[in-house]
Amino acid sequence: MDYVSDVGRAPLSVQEIAAKAIQFDYNNTIPLRYWLRTADTLLKEADIYEREGNEQQAYMLLLRHAELVLKYLPDHPDAKLAEYARHMRALKTVTDDIRRLERLKPRIFAQYVAYEEAQKEREARRAALDANRTSTRSGSSSPAAETQKLDAQFAVQVARKEFARREAERLARGRPSSLTPSPAPLPQFPPSIVSTPPTDTSYDRPSPPPVPPLPESLRPPAVPKKTPLPPLTPPPLPTPPAPFSATSPPSLPSLPLTLTSPPPPPKLPLELIAPSTTITISPSKQRLLSDFQFPSTARLESGQRLRTIFLPSLLRHKFLAIAFPNTRRNLETCGVLCGTLIQNALFISRLVIPEQVVTSDTCNMTDEESLFHYVDSEDLMVLGWIHTHPMYECFMSSVDLHNHCGYQLMLPESIAVVCAPRFTPDWGVFRLTDPPGVKRIMECREKSLFHRHEGAEGLYTDALRPGHVVEVGEMEFEVVDLRK
């Protein structure tokens, strides 16, 4: 979606906002569950923007939600399925949207009129005084945008202040604190992914035979518009055992159990950084914490702005520790990246490990209802996902591209983090291009699991800076394992 009131941009009229609200791609071949999550995400974003005073953005998101729910979802092929009956009944109640739109509309109109009148006055003063004086342009940067830099320390300070405020609100409403440890403690993971194996001896049984590498015809292209991933060779395979009899197929060699993933940074533990950690920040920045808006500096290929995502740098190390038992058995692991919207930026603050069924080259979430019930109960947004490639290099396979398309439909900024601990590079952060990636994947009708896409070299790209993702070492995050 486009952002109607980014830093330093002029207000739009109600009619202009309404025109933007209906400009989104809808495809009924995308499973209904993704569109239901999209509707939920739109409401959560609208709530946050309205609370932060960005009424134009809240108005557009509420209009888009009403358009999606009333015009498109009732005719979706899955809408008549029994499993979605409760969700569809809930979506029909959009009276709250209408009430909020009616409340916001006159205020947005007044803001636009006041801006137009101020523009006319400035033009009149310029004409009356000196033509050489430079008037304030409607698209000029605001003082806040010029004063503040998109630095990681400032982002952490903003996030901590907002998290504390929301936690106080949660407690005031009588809801349990999201920071309180659950009665059942999380399992203890090895401090080093390389040197210390898990203590659970159930993982010491022989590894299952791995699936052989993908044939050359199915190998993915290099990430477009970035430094291409070099061709990599996996670690040497051990000598295979003696062949079976003529009536039995030969066994496949196993990859070594020892991983070569680098350990976490030595000065920082894998555990959650203590909330008491403070960062010294200048008084001028402190005064602007309440009304600062992070600018959208990155863009899609279409030119649409992307809000910044702040990603804790320790999160992938913690995830690799959790995934270690599966990785040493050549099995994938996946997790969901959750967080929240704060002052026009997205902060990943929680790693959720859902119930899942895994193989050597796939990882499918199960019991999604429980996952999204947890996300809703914690007032979180789904900002992307993370998964391992225990046997293959760091890239987006055709399966990954189709999985991520659903996430990016919910939120254009959604990211896919891929961890390949046996290869170099051993991780990456990706998104689909738009265009052409999102539309190409949405229109793909290929049924086979791994398949080629025509023009595949332009379907996805790196999302780290100069993309819209910034890694931050000081950011706190929590880990929640929903696996039984």
Q: Nutshell version of this structure?
A:
The protein is of the alpha/beta class. The protein has helices spanning 14-21, 32-51, 55-72, 85-91, 95-128, 143-147, 152-172, 283-287, 315-327, 368-377, 398-410, 437-443, and strands at residues 298-299, 305-306, 309-312, 334-342, 345-353, 356-358, 363-365, 381-388, 415-419, 427-432, 460-462, 469-472, 478-481.
Question: Would you kindly provide a written description of the structure presented here, covering whatever features stand out?
Answer:
With 484 residues, the protein is of the alpha/beta class. Helices cover 33% and strands 13% of the residues. It has helices at residues 14-21, 32-51, 55-72, 85-91, 95-128, 143-147, 152-172, 283-287, 315-327, 368-377, 398-410, 437-443; strands at residues 298-299, 305-306, 309-312, 334-342, 345-353, 356-358, 363-365, 381-388, 415-419, 427-432, 460-462, 469-472, 478-481. The longest helix is centred in the N-terminal third of the chain and has 34 residues, at 95-128. Residues 134-150, 179-212 and 217-281 have low confidence and may be disordered.
Sheet bearing the most strands, described? Answer: 9 strands, mixed
SSE succession: HHHHHHHHEEEHEEEEHEHEEHEEE
Assembly status? single chain
Tally of separate helices: 12
Morphology: globular
- End-to-end distance, in Å? 37 Å
The radius of gyration over CA amounts to 25 Å
Structural class: alpha/beta
In round numbers, the mean pLDDT is 76
| Helicity, as a percent range | 25-40%
Assess the beta-strand content as a share of residues.
Answer: 5-15%
Structure summary, number of beta strands: 13
Q: Show unreliable segments.
A: 134-150, 179-212, 217-281
